[in-house]
Structure formats: structure tokens, C-alpha cells
Design brief:
The chain has 13 helices and 5 strands. The protein has 336 residues and is mostly helical. Bound molecules: tryptophan (TRP).
Length: 336
């Protein structure tokens, strides 16, 4: 059995928030240090285009996300960390895979169906109104990301599981037609990583406008934490940890002993104001060293750029010869 290859992409929209940190960045960074694993991490900036982001937004988000991963300790000597658009072999493979992708398969993509549903619900005459080919073909670009590096394991959130399964379907069809060239990937969904709630108690998400950026400056961090929704129980009244956003966030950062100590304070009726102060101080202490580094990196984007280019060069050492093999298999080859 050959070694598993892990690969995951991060779409470059928005500023990383603590929900991203707990759900994807922290486990990804842990895994990047595991010498027994081969890991690829990349910034999916071409995918960001499918969301019609504006240019400033994409470029700023690329810088912020890359700087965040670097500041939080990604081991980029061991793991390969790059930007999707630096690998021209990926869009080329996307086109090749398009020729092996049934249109009907793309019709079934949840994200596309959801966009159609919005149009239907709003009574639009055209169910495809405002839907670009980039949104429609999004899963094929994602398949190319994965198949380009022979990834066998793809850690993703539950919402991306179908896309990885589609990549597998496309690879299977390709292999059936052209021989055993592509490696079949499978999704890895970790149900143990916490899904954090945001300021209003709904899932923390950029689109709900309820997120706490990982590297919010101290003052802003305090302000946001003070805004987290609580119930109206008074100081001294026992409180439930089960439906408390403050508790969930604390737990996602603290160790078991610290979490148990806070649970005890809940039972004793800690005041919400005090709990907010405790949470603020805890996160602030936890994040401050990385925040300093993050601020240095975002203040000097050339350092981040150099790191991404280094990663792209390593990635292309793999992608370039492999694409040659794929091209040869499909008959796009030198004539003599
Ligand atoms: N679509 C993924 C998301 O929105 C990001 C992504 C792009 C990705 N390419 C990928 C994830 C390849 C895993 C593998 O989260």
C-alpha cells in the first residue's frame, strides 16, 4: 500500500475567523507537522472567482489567509503550501476532465441546485439566472485540484463531501476510458472538530456577518466578544453550558481542566459580563504571539509571496511531469 496523500483547499474569500481556525486551520496545521503524512494545502483563488468576488477582495483575502496559516505555524518545509493560480497545469487538467464529466452529474451538484432553487423561489422566468459557468463547473476545477496531486484523502467540511465524490466519479470514468492514470480520492470528514456559533448564536460564517476574525486587533476582539448573545439570566443564577456560545468558544480553545473549571462557574451562576471578560482574556493570550507575526506578514506581503512561490515550484515539480503523462494518455502528445 502506498502512502496516503492529503490535500485540501481554502477558498480565498474573506478574512479567516475563529470558526475557520477551530474547524480547518488548527487541524490542518497539526497535520502539517505530522512527518508520517504527505500534505498539500492551497489557496483556491480560482474558485473564489466563481463567487464573483471583487479583485481587491480576492487579493486581500489571499494575503490574509496565507499569512494566517504561516503565523499560526504551518510547517511549510514538510507540507506543500501554494496558490492554485500559480499552477497552470490545474486549469489545463480541468478542461481535460470536462471532456470526461457528464453534464448530468454537474446538474446534481448541491451548490448549483441551491442557486437554481433561489431563482425558482423568487419566481424568476430563468432558473439559471445569474449562474455562471464557473459556478456550474466548480466541481470539475475542484476535481483537477485533487487529481493533479494524486490525493487519496481530502479533508473537507460536510458541505464539500459531494464535490470530492464527484472528483472520484470523474476519475473513474477517465480511467475506464484511458486506462489507470488517475488516483481515486475519498473525502475525510471529521465530525469531532467543533462547529462554532457566531455572535448571534447561528453558525459562525462570513455570510451571516456574525464572525470573529482570528486576528482581530485586541480592542475589536474585546468589542466583538462583548456582543456575543447570551440569555437574560442574572448573576448568581445557575447557567447551562449546553446552549452557550461563550462556553462553546471557550471550550474550543481551552484544555479539559480549564473547561471543567468554567463549567463549575456556570453551575455557580457566573455573571455573563465576567464570562465574557474571561473568554476575551483567554483568546487574546492564546492568539497574541501569532497575531504579532500575522501583522508583520500582512505588513510585508513580499514574504508571503515568496513563500507561496516556493510552494508552487515544489508543487509544479509534481504537476508538470504528471500532466505530461495525462496528456500522453489522451493523445495530446508530440508527433515525432
Ligand atoms: N471548495 C472548497 C471549499 O469551498 C475549497 C476547495 C477548492 C477544495 N478545491 C479543493 C477543498 C480541493 C478540497 C480539495 O471549501
Amino acid at each position: 500500500m502506498s502512502q496516503d496523500i492529503y490535500l485540501t483547499g481554502i477558498t480565498t474569500t474573506g478574512t479567516p475567523h475563529i470558526g475557520n481556525y477551530v474547524g480547518a486551520i488548527r487541524p490542518g496545521i497539526e497535520a502539517s507537522k505530522d512527518r508520517g503524512k504527505k500534505n498539500f494545502y492551497f489557496l483556491a483563488d480560482l474558485h473564489a472567482l466563481a463567487k464573483n468576488e471583487d479583485p481587491e477582495n480576492i487579493s486581500r483575502s489571499t494575503l490574509e489567509i496565507a499569512a494566517a496559516w504561516m503565523a499560526l505555524g504551518l510547517d511549510s518545509e514538510h507540507a506543500i503550501f501554494y496558490r492554485q493560480s500559480d499552477i497552470p497545469e490545474i486549469p489545463q487538467l480541468t478542461w481535460i476532465l470536462s471532456s470526461m464529466t457528464a453534464k448530468g452529474l454537474m446538474n446534481r451538484a448541491h451548490s448549483y441546485k441551491a442557486a437554481v432553487q433561489v431563482n425558482v423561489d423568487s419566481g424568476s422566468k430563468d432558473p439559471d439566472k445569474g449562474i455562471t459557468m464557473a459556478l456550474y463547473s466548480y466541481p470539475i476545477l475542484m476535481a483537477a485540484d485533487i487529481l493533479m496531486f494524486k490525493a487519496t484523502k481530502v479533508p473537507v467540511g460536510r458541505d464539500q463531501k459531494q464535490h470530492v465524490e464527484m472528483a472520484r466519479d470523474v476519475a473513474q470514468r477517465f480511467n475506464h476510458h484511458y486506462g489507470d492514470v488517475l488516483v481515486l480520492p475519498e473525502p475525510v470528514i471529521d465530525d469531532n472538530t467543533a462547529v462554532l456559533s457566531g455572535l448571534d448564536g447561528r453558525k459562525m460564517s462570513k455570510s451571516y456577518n456574525n464572525a470573529i476574525p482570528v486576528f482581530a486587533p485586541e480592542k475589536q476582539l474585546r468589542k466583538l466578544i462583548m456582543k456575543i448573545k447570551t440569555n437574560s439570566l442574572e448573576p448568581g443564577e445557575p447557567k447551562n453550558t449546553a446552549d452557550s456560545t461563550l462556553f462553546d468558544i471557550f471550550k474550543a480553545f481551552a484544555n479539559d481542566a480549564e473547561t471543567n473549571a468554567i463549567a463549575k462557574r456556570y453551575a455557580e451562576g457566573i455573571a455573563w459580563g465576567e464570562m465574557k471578560q474571561i473568554l476575551f482574556e483567554y483568546i487574546n493570550d492564546h492568539i497574541t504571539p501569532a497575531r504579532d507575526k500575522y501583522e508583520r506578514l500582512t505588513g510585508d506581503p513580499a514574504i508571503v509571496e515568496a513563500e507561496l512561490r516556493k510552494g508552487a515550484a515544489r508543487a509544479r515539480e509534481i504537476a508538470v511531469p504528471y500532466l505530461e503523462e495525462i496528456r500522453d494518455a489522451i493523445g495530446i502528445r508530440r508527433l515525432g
